[in-house]
Specification:
The protein is an alpha/beta fold. The chain is 39% helix and 19% strand. It has 26 helices and 27 strands. The strands form eight sheets. Strands 6-5-4-11-10-9 form a six-stranded parallel sheet. Strand 19 and strand 20 form a beta hairpin. It is globular, with a radius of gyration of 27 Å. Bound molecules: guanine (GUN). Guanine (GUN) binds next to helix 5.
């Protein structure tokens, strides 16, 4: 996969197939080879990237089978773009069994020229007891092994029912095979019952245990209501039969839900039917024609949502879109709440900072991955630097521990000077300019009455006190020195602040009091502070860290050949990476070193530590200064 743009776990990527690339996220509309209501040609202007069809239906229908074997799948369907084929698993689940085995079905898909073939995985329903679900996971894995040496891209689905540990096991097993594509299976019944929160568990436990270099597909996730949530959790593809199924029941799909034709009075202007029919005219069409027209409307709704999601990823604002969409249905709100309970995991993949402002809405915002990141920092800071820390934090998810108690127990006992309230938590004032603290647009919502009381209690320590008359001269310098050290600790790891910023550094400050550049006493530039409140390191600054911070911290290790190029200022490509620090945060500065830990360059990592090792195509680190 080639990553074009990313926003946390969400990504815009290109995935190559024998019939051209698929740009994700996208939906593969289901084409029934027997009844082609709307042809792929007609779907192209919507942004169609590929389609999915069922090889089992072709295999069991003699005329289709003969034609497919003779002319190939692409000619049969009348489409020259990427075609994925499913295997008959779902039919096997609905009817009990099918008349072909795994090898036969996969072999057939290869012979007719499918771009992505699917094994005959074993479908488990949400109600399947655990021992049975586990058996299905093992059997699915064995079936993947059966065809492991086949040519072409094979989809190895993750099964495991509603059990997170089985999803993890299944993902790990599939990851160890030659599967080039990973659908998440067995979720259709959850989608049908709006059980999106269980789906969240399933997606997360599958996704984080699969290679980031393979596309992840949500099997049957064809309604746009849940697209943004899935993409936010790292899903790249969907398939949709719902556009036609819903149409047959006179149901119109909208990005946020579904409406019955019998109950609407107006068509939305974006509908392809808007200019052509009144609602009454659609109702009066004969059944077949009506279904076809509604299917056109439904496809438009589906692709419109994909466009919106892509735009949000470009803006790096998908999290806010998800927060907004959560309000469109209580089941989505429940799913959103579940997503927030995984903030400690999501945080690992969140960028250091984003292009968009951070929106603080309500109590849900207090459980955001960024809050998780800051809390983790302040907690570790408190335990490691008890004497001179300023931190503190409120754990909204720890209902037994109130803010007032916290202030009484912890905050007042330590030697702290400054603290600000942000997003339902208390953060060190030194981090005031860092993303997302300064870039927050707040509703002013306060998570609970106790938070206001706690704020009053800490008022004497608030940072604004330091901006007034009482805070000048030496005090300003002392605060700024604390600030640059704490930002460095937060950005690069505990202890880095003191490694690079000695007591005698020169701190350049703008007219408005904003820190801009930090130089050594001798005048060598160490780092500059950007508008997002974080540092860009110079090579000199990086070398100060490199000589004091032990590997693998902050390192991206590359081959000797690559290191020579990177030392001249050229970017690092994924394919030359030999290792990376697991804790690297996407868009943060990293040390580019060779196998002997010789520092070649400093640059900005495009992805997180784990992803640096998994992707194989494109730019991994944008070097801003090389050694030479
Ligand atoms: N279509 C919907 N769900 C599934 C699944 O779990 N496996 C396969 N192969 N196809 C599906």
């Amino acid at each position: 996969m080639k990553i074009e743009e990313r926003d946390g776990l969400a990504r815009i990527a290109k995935f190559e197939t024998p019939h051209g690339p698929i740009e994700t996220p996208t939906v593969l509309p289901v084409i029934n080879p027997n009844i082609m209501n709307i042809t792929p040609q007609e779907m192209k202007p919507l942004g169609l990237q590929g389609i999915i069809t069922n090889s089992y239906i072709i295999l069991r229908t003699p005329e289709l089978r003969e034609r497919a074997l003779r002319e190939g799948l692409h000619s049969l369907i009348g489409y020259d773009g990427p075609i994925m084929t499913d295997s008959g698993t779902f039919q096997s689940y609905v009817y009990g069994s099918i008349e072909f085995n795994n090898r036969e079905v996969v072999d057939f898909q290869r012979r007719i020229g499918s771009d992505i073939s699917t094994i005959l995985d074993v479908f488990t329903t949400p109600g399947t007891p655990k021992p049975e679900a586990e058996k299905a996971v093992i059997e699915t894995y064995n079936r993947m092994l059966e065809v492991n040496d086949e040519e072409g891209i094979i989809a190895g689905p993750v099964q495991g029912g509603v059990y997170p540990d089985l999803r993890q096991k299944s993902a790990e097993l599939m990851n160890s095979t030659n599967a080039g594509y990973h659908p998440i299976g067995g979720v259709v019944p959850l989608l049908e019952t709006y059980d999106y929160s269980t789906l969240v568990d399933i997606i997360i436990n599958s996704k984080i245990n699969l290679s980031f270099n393979k596309p992840v597909h949500l099997f049957g996730g064809g309604h746009p209501m849940f697209f943004a949530f899935s993409v936010y959790l790292g899903v790249d593809l969907f398939d949709s039969a719902s556009y036609i199924k819903y149409a047959k029941d006179d149901r119109l799909i909208y990005p946020d839900g579904t409406r019955d034709l019998a109950r609407i009075t107006e068509l939305p202007q974006w509908s392809p039917l808007y200019d052509r029919y009144t609602v009454k005219e659609i109702r009066d069409l004969d059944k077949e024609r009506r279904s076809l027209e509604i299917a056109r409307h439904n496809l438009k709704a589906i692709f419109m949502e994909i466009s919106e999601i892509k735009e949000r990823i470009y803006e790096e604002g998908l999290a806010q879109y998800v927060a907004q969409k959560a309000r469109s249905h209580p089941s989505l709100m429940k799913a959103y709440s579940r997503i927030m309970s995984y903030s400690n995991i999501l945080e690992k993949y969140e960028d250091l900072s984003k292009k968009t402002a951070y929106f603080f809405y309500d109590s849900f915002s207090t459980r955001n991955p960024y809050v998780s990141r800051i809390n983790r920092f302040t907690e570790s800071y408190l335990s490691s630097n008890k004497k001179d820390t300023y931190a503190f934090t409120y754990r909204a998810w720890n209902p037994g521990y109130t803010n007032s108690e916290f202030v009484r127990d912890v905050y007042q006992k330590i030697d702290c000077n400054a603290l600000i309230s942000w997003s339902g938590t208390f953060v060190p004032a030194e981090l005031e300019n860092t993303y997302p603290i300064e870039q927050t647009v707040s509703s002013g919502f306060e998570p609970d009455p106790d938070f206001s009381r706690a704020k009053d209690l800490i008022a004497p320590f608030r940072v604004d006190m330091y901006k007034g008359e009482k805070f000048e001269g030496e005090q300003v310098r002392s605060f700024n020195l604390n600030k640059i050290r704490m930002v460095a600790d937060y950005q690069f790891g505990s202890g880095v602040g003191r490694m690079i910023f000695r007591d005698d550094v020169r701190i350049n400050v703008s007219k408005t009091g904003r820190i801009r550049g930090i130089l050594s006493k001798e005048g060598r530039q160490i780092a500059t502070m950007r508008n997002d409140g974080f540092f860009t390191l110079t090579y000199y600054g990086a070398s100060l860290i490199h000589s004091q911070l032990k590997p693998p911290a902050m390192r991206v290790t590359v081959s000797k050949e690559s290191a020579e190029y990177n030392a001249k200022g050229y970017s690092v490509f994924f394919k030359f990476i030999l290792g990376s620090d697991e804790n690297i945060i996407a868009k943060n500065d990293v040390l580019v070193v060779d196998e002997d830990d010789v520092l070649a360059a400093v640059g900005k990592a495009m992805v997180s530590g784990r992803e640096l090792r998994e992707y194989t195509e494109g730019i991994a680190v944008k070097v801003h200064e090389g050694r030479d």
